[in-house]
Design goal:
6-stranded parallel sheet, 6-stranded mixed sheet, alpha/beta, 13 helices
C-alpha cells in the first residue's frame, strides 16, 4: 500500500477536481478493464473528470461491464484523441501494468505526460512513478484498487457498479479463486463486494456462458492440437493463423484456453502458442500449478513476464520453431517439472 504520508498527499490531490486519464495495458483483460472502470466510476462520483484510454480493443465478453461500451477510448481507433487525453491530464493512472512499454503505442504519451503518475499494479519489477502501489503478492490489481479505496476512506461510496467491476477483476485474475495467490483478504474483499451489490452468478454468466458456436469449434481445434510431454508434466497447445481465421476468430475467443492443460491429471505446466492474426508475431500464454515459476520462464526466454503461475510472452520465430524451442527448454527445468513420486 502507499505509505501513510502518501495517502495524505493523495487525499489532498483528490480534494479538488482533477482531469484524470486511466490506462490499462495492451490487450486488457478482466482485471485491467474491471479495475479501470471501478476507478473511473469512483473518481467521477467524487467530482473529477476521468477518462479511460486503452491501447487497443478488449474482448466482447467484457463489454457488458458498467461503462465499458461508452467510457473507454480505444487508442488504436483514434491515437490523436488518446494522446490529447493523456497529455492534458492532471493525473495519470497506470493500472495493472508497471512499465510504459506494456501500453505499446501509449508509452510515448505516458513518458511525456506532465501529470502526476500513479501506478497500482501487482507485476514484478515495476518502474518508478510519482506514486507506486506495487504488491506482487496480490492476486489481482482489482483487489489493490479496493484496498486503496479503503485507505482513501471511500469504501462507503462503493456502488453496485463499482463492486461489479472490482469483483470481475478478482474473479478473472484468480482463475475463479483457484490460484495459490488467493488470500483470506481476497475472499474477504469478495464478500464485501457482494454486500455492496455484486452478484456472482450474473457475473459468471456474463463472463463464461457467452460462447459463440465459432468459439466452441475453435476450442475443439485447440484441444486436438495438444502435445502432452508426460515426462515433464507439460501440455502444449498451438493455433495457427489459418486455424484462427477459418473459425472466424474474434478478440477474446481464446481467453482461458490455456487453462485446459492444467485439467490433465498430474500436469504442472500448460503453454498456449498462437500466431497473431494481424502481425507476424507469435504469442505465448503460460499457466502453472504449485511453485513452478512461469514468470521466470517467460522473462528469460520469450521477452515476457507476469506472475509465478500466469505469464505471457512473444516470439519472432515461426509457430513450429517456437514450439520446438519450448520443448527443448523443458529439460532445463528437469528437477522442477519431473514427478518425483
Amino acid at each position: 500500500m502507499f505509505t501513510t504520508e502518501e495517502i495524505q498527499e493523495l487525499k489532498k490531490i483528490f480534494s479538488t477536481p482533477q482531469k484524470i486519464a486511466i490506462i490499462p495495458h495492451r490487450n486488457p483483460d478482466g482485471d485491467a478493464i474491471g479495475s479501470c472502470l471501478a476507478l473511473f466510476h469512483m473518481l467521477q462520483s467524487k467530482g473529477h473528470t476521468a477518462k479511460i484510454v486503452a491501447p487497443n480493443d478488449f474482448p466482447k465478453f467484457l463489454k457488458w461491464l458498467p461503462g465499458a461500451k461508452k467510457q473507454v477510448q480505444i487508442a488504436e481507433f483514434n491515437d490523436f484523441a488518446a494522446g490529447q487525453i493523456i497529455g492534458g491530464a492532471d493525473v495519470v493512472f497506470i493500472l495493472d501494468f508497471n512499465t510504459p512499454s506494456r501500453a505499446d503505442n501509449l508509452a510515448v504519451y505516458i513518458k511525456s505526460a506532465s501529470g502526476i503518475k500513479i501506478m497500482i499494479d501487482h507485476h514484478q519489477e515495476p518502474d518508478d512513478f510519482h506514486y507506486n502501489y506495487s504488491d506482487v503478492e496480490m492476486p489481482a490489481t482489482a483487489q489493490m484498487v479496493y484496498h486503496w479505496f479503503q485507505a482513501m476512506d471511500w469504501e462507503d461510496d462503493i456502488t453496485t457498479d463499482i463492486a461489479t467491476c472490482i469483483y470481475t477483476g478478482l474473479l478473472t485474475d484468480t482463475g475463479n479463486f483457484r490460484y495459490p495467490s488467493v488470500k483470506p483478504s481476497t475472499l474477504e474483499a469478495a464478500a464485501a463486494l457482494l454486500r455492496k451489490g455484486a452478484e456472482p452468478h450474473l457475473i459468471m454468466d456474463q463472463l463464461y456462458d457467452v460462447s459463440s458456436p465459432q468459439r466452441l469449434k475453435l476450442l475443439s481445434v485447440f484441444l486436438q492440437n495438444l502435445t502432452y510431454v508426460e515426462e515433464y508434466r507439460t501440455a502444449v497447445f498451438t493455433l495457427s493463423r489459418e486455424e484462427l481465421l477459418a473459425n472466424e476468430f474474434q478478440k477474446g475467443d481464446t481467453e482461458g484456453f490455456v487453462n485446459y492443460g492444467l485439467n490433465i491429471n498430474n500436469a504442472l505446466l500448460s503453454v498456449f502458442i498462437s500466431e497473431d492474426t494481424t502481425q507476424d508475431l507469435i504469442k505465448l500464454s503460460f499457466r502453472s500449478k504449485d511453485d513452478f515459476d512461469v514468470n521466470k520462464l517467460a522473462r528469460e526466454h520469450f521477452s515476457g513476464g507476469g506472475h509465478i503461475n500466469a505469464a505471457g510472452g512473444r516470439s519472432e520465430k515461426t509457430l513450429d520453431e517456437t514450439k520446438k524451442q519450448l520443448l527443448e527448454l523443458l529439460p532445463l527445468y528437469d528437477s522442477e517439472l519431473k514427478n518425483e513420486n
